[in-house]
C-alpha cells in the first residue's frame, strides 16, 4: 500500500531503524533518533543498490517520488543513478577547487591580519593578472608551464616587480591548497629563475644640504590643505613609511612619554614599533590636534574624517611644490634620514631598529621593539635639531653620535 503524507508525518522511531515502503523501490527510513531519510532500492547489473533521495520533511513525499522516477528512467537507459550522483558531486567539488576559489578562500582566511591596503593590493593583483587566465582551472591540474605563461603576460608589459609579486602570491595559494588537500604540490617553486630579476627600487631623495634645506622650508610654507602640510612637516622628523604616517591614530600618540606606538598589524615587518618623538615632532602634533584630535586619525581624509588621508596625498603635494619623482618621494624621507644617520656614525642597530626593518630572527624580534630606545631618543632629537639648523641656514649642529651624548 502506497505511503501517505499523514503516515510519513506521524511515523515514530523505534529501538531499531524502521522502513516504511512506498512503491517501486522507494521507502522512508526512520532512525532510532527520529531522523527520516528517503531511500531508493534498485538493482543494476545484477547488484542491489541504494540511493539517498533526501531528508523528510524537507523533501516531501511527492518530490521523493519524482526523484525515484528520474532514477528509474536512468536505469532503463542502462545508466547507474549512483554513478551520475557521484559525477555531479565530483563536478561540484571541482568547481570549488578552482584556483580562484582557493585563492579567495586563502585571502579571506589570512587577510584579517594584514594591513588593509596590503590586502587590497594582493586581491587586485590576482583579479587583474591571474584569475582571467587560470582562475577557472582546477588548482590540482595547474603545472609550472601554465603558471609561467600567466606571469609572462605581466612581464610583457614591463611590470617585472608585479610579475614577481604575483608569483609569490600564487605560491602562497598553492601551498594553502596543498595543506588543505586540494593540490599535490606547489608548481611556483619550479619557476625559480624563470623570470628576469626586477629592477631594484630606488626611493628618490635629496642629498645636497642646500637642497634639503630648501625642501624643509617649502614644507613649512606649503599652501595646500592644513592636514597635508602637517603630514609633510612630520614626515622628515619621524621617517616612517608613507602608509604608516597616513594611518597614524591619536590613540597611538603618548604625549607624556613623547612616543608614537604603532601596533604590529600596521607595520610591514608585523612587529610593534616605537617612534620617539622629538620636541619638534610633538609641536607638529600639537599644531594639528585642535583640528583632528576629536577623531580617530591624525591625518584624516579631506572627504571623510572616518578614513585616513589618501595614499598619494604627500607625493602629490611634493609634485605641486615642483619636486619630480626623480628628486623626492614620500618614501625619500626614510632614505634621507638613513643615509645621514649612518654617515654621522650613529649605532647601526639603533638606526635599523628605528627604520623598523624586518628582523630575520623572529624570536629576537618579539622582544626588541624597544631595543636601543635610549639611544634612539637621543638620535631622533639630534636629527630634528639638525634639520632645524639646516632649514634656518645658520651654523649647522653636527649630527655625529658623540655630539648627542
UniProtKB/TrEMBL annotation:
Keyword terms: DNA integration, DNA recombination, DNA-binding
The keyword Lipoprotein appears for this protein: no
Region (Disordered) residue spans: 184-206
CDD domains: INT_P4_C (cd00801)
Keyword DNA-binding assigned: yes
Domain of life: Bacteria
Coiled-coil parts of chain: none
GO MF entries: DNA binding
Tyr recombinase domain sequence ranges: 201-384
PANTHER family: PROPHAGE INTEGRASE, PROPHAGE INTEGRASE INTS-RELATED
Family designation: Belongs to the 'phage' integrase family.
Entry protein name: Tyr recombinase domain-containing protein
Species this protein is from: Alkalidesulfovibrio alkalitolerans DSM 16529
